[in-house]
Amino acid sequence: MAENETLECITEHERILQEIESTDTACVGPTLRSIYDDQPNAHKRFMEKLDARIRNHDREIEKMCNFHHQGFVDAITELLKVRADAEKLMGQVTDTNRRLQEAGREVTAQTEEVIRCRIQQRNMATTVEKLHLCIPVLEKYSKLKEQLESKRYYAALKTMEQLEKVFIPRVSQYRFCQIMAENLPRLREEIKEISMSDLKDFLESIRKHSNKIGETAMRQAQQHRTFNSAVAKQASIGHYSNPVYSLNGRAHTHNGLMMNDEAGEEEEADEEVLTAQDLVDFSPVYRCLHIYTVLGDRETFENYYRKQRKKQARLVLQPQANMHETVEGYRRYFNQIVGFFVVEDHILHATQGLVTRVFTDELWNMALSKIIAVLRTHSSYCDDPDLVLELKNLIVIFADTLQGYGFPVNRLFDLLFEVRDQYNETLLKKWALVFRRSLSWTTTVPSQWRQRRSIKLVVSRFPFHDAEIEKQDFPKKLPMSQSVPQIYTQVKELIYASLKFSESLHRSSTEIDDMLRKSTNLLLTRTLSSCLQSLIKKPHIGLTELVQIIINTTHLEQACKYLEEFITNITNVSPETVHTTRLYGLSTFKDARHAAEGEIYTKLNQKIDEFIQLADYEWGMSESDGRASGYLMDLINFLRSTFQVFTHLPNNNNDHASMSGKVAQTACMSACKHLSTSLMQMLLDTDLKQISMGAIQQFNLDVIQCELFASSEPVPGFQGDTLQLAFIDLRQLLDLFMVWDWSTYLADYGQPTSKYLRVNPATALALLEKVYRGMKDTSKKNNIFSQFRKNDRDKQKLIETVVKQLRSLVNGMSS
């Protein structure tokens, strides 16, 4: 057992020794530590083993040294032999080195000079290289300064961008580049401020030039519209002539152009066509837009521009307080608005997104509402049709101009219908003055002409033809007044004036025809009718004048169909069209004629009342004068002469003959009835307390004259005793008292065949009481004659009896 352990130990020590011999000394430590980790006293045995190994190696070394010793000795001997040669060689080398040093000293100096030059050359090359990098930066910065001084800000921003992104990064290590880089943001802010200042100047400039821009745009639109209108109407020039009429002393034609403006328009057509770019420099807004775009702040610029333009729009839309007084006020207002939106349209198309169509449409809608409100307000103050017409033309040109720039203008044309109503109102007011002037001058007498040329002029202006008058010698007397052709011409002039307003409204011929007819109807039914009614009601107009008015209205009524044809010729719209409005002239003149007739009846009755007021009956007279009263004879003579006037009424055809006869018959019947009523009221007047039989007899004579007048046929056409029936009530009442036929009256009362059928019991009672009081008063005066007392007493008793019976009849009627 012990032997085995000893053998293993020896084998292990042998391995360790081999490992020590074969490995690096750095690895010996772990190997030696393993010796101490083994069995106790193992290191002693290892040391012994190690000593044995060392001795073994020493013997091998000794053997090797012994083997090489002789060769070593030989080498030393040979080395000693070359020692002298080596010292000699050393001397030679030292000498050679000395000479070489001396010879190379100059070369060394030149070499050092070459090295120094090489270093300088390298430094110069480096400097040139760096300068090549710096010079473009400096040149760009210098260019930047020049661009700023010349106000080329957009180019300056491009230069700054190149400096920042390309040039400065190449030489960013230099101090001057750092200074440049620090200055660039400040320069950008300065450019922003300067460009914004230029934009403000631009906004102020376009505000000042808006009027000129708008004026130019509207003039061009007007020239274009005038040219198109002239071309369009050239084809229809043969349909009707261009009558000339005057409004406020200026000559107009129906095509909407003023005759004295033609030369001016031709001169304007020759002028150079200017645009917004010619009048305003838009470069500031372009420049500012580009600058803010480059700076990445485009949205801020757009918002600022739009905000400022909205403010300017509100200022432009504010009208002057007295704008409605002259057309120039309206023209300036429209010019400024057109100039504003022409600029906006140019900005819209010349820039990318600075303003959008949505923004301009919103701005236009806001402006359109304000414009319409302003025009409604100011046009309502205008009472001059010429000014309203010029306003309409301005609105049309204004609308056409903006429509040419793509803005919707339908609401403006709708507004023109409101302005048309205002225009019609002003025309009616003006024509009312014209009608009053014509009617006040020449209405009340027929027209008389001494020259053929004059009457031809009248016939050319008014549709009148009478073969009998044509055969007469001069001077000729027409049945109508001079006011009739004047009024007819004035109505045609209003139609022309209405036609002028209807032009350029983009309406069909049917709509224009309807407008003209409605305007004419308003003129006839309201203005002319009012003037005629006012004329008829004037207190100084007498019966003769009223008869002349009836004649005039009859001729005007006959001329209405020619007005229909006149409108049809203008508009080329057939009167048979379903929706064609008819003229109401017939009813207008009929109403005027009826009013004149009624006024004739009224004035005739008033004249009768004036004569009646002259009556001076002696109601207590004992006997009549034997003849009719003087006032009544004067009244009858007046009526005879008055009814002769009615022979002048138009009777050139059966209709007018029957009409004139009807007017005369109605007037005569009305006069007789009124006379009869007035005489009856005179008898029954409550202030008249008593009447004598002599007064009754005198009154009977007057009524007989009235009946004779009625039976003399003062106006032809009455059948039988029709006119005399106006006095039937008086006749029966007077017969009752004259005959004193009370028994017959009371016996036949209520019978259709009664002789006194028209005598009312109340009327008979009132008159009888007055006669009874008269008899009693007469009896008192004549009481000295005793022989009459019995007859008076009998008559008084009869009267009392009749009065009682009449009262019973009256009471029976009332119950």
**With helices defined by DSSP (H or I, 4 residues minimum), what is the helix count?**
27
Unreliable residue stretches: 238-271, 651-659, 784-788
Which range best describes the helical content: under 10%, 10-25%, 25-40%, 40-55%, 55-70% or over 70%? over 70%
From the helix content, strand content and strand pairing, which structural class follows?
mainly alpha
General shape: rod-shaped
Strand content: under 5%
Rg is 67 Å
Describe the sheet with the most strands: 2 strands, antiparallel
Strand order of the largest sheet: 1-2
Organism: Gasterosteus aculeatus aculeatus (three-spined stickleback)
InterPro entries: EXOC6/Sec15 (IPR007225), EXOC6/Sec15_C (IPR046361), EXOC6/Sec15_C_dom1 (IPR042045), EXOC6_Sec15_N (IPR048359), EXOC6PINT-1/Sec15/Tip20_C_dom2 (IPR042044)
Domain Exocyst complex subunit EXOC6/Sec15 C-terminal: 412-770
Family: Belongs to the SEC15 family.
Structure commentary:
This protein is mainly alpha-helical and 815 residues long. Helices cover 75% and strands 1% of the residues. The protein is built from 27 helices and four strands. Strands 1-2 form a two-stranded antiparallel ribbon. It has a two-stranded antiparallel ribbon with strand order 3-4. β1 (245-247) and β2 (250-252) form a beta hairpin. The longest helix has 67 residues, at 83-149. The chain is rod-shaped.
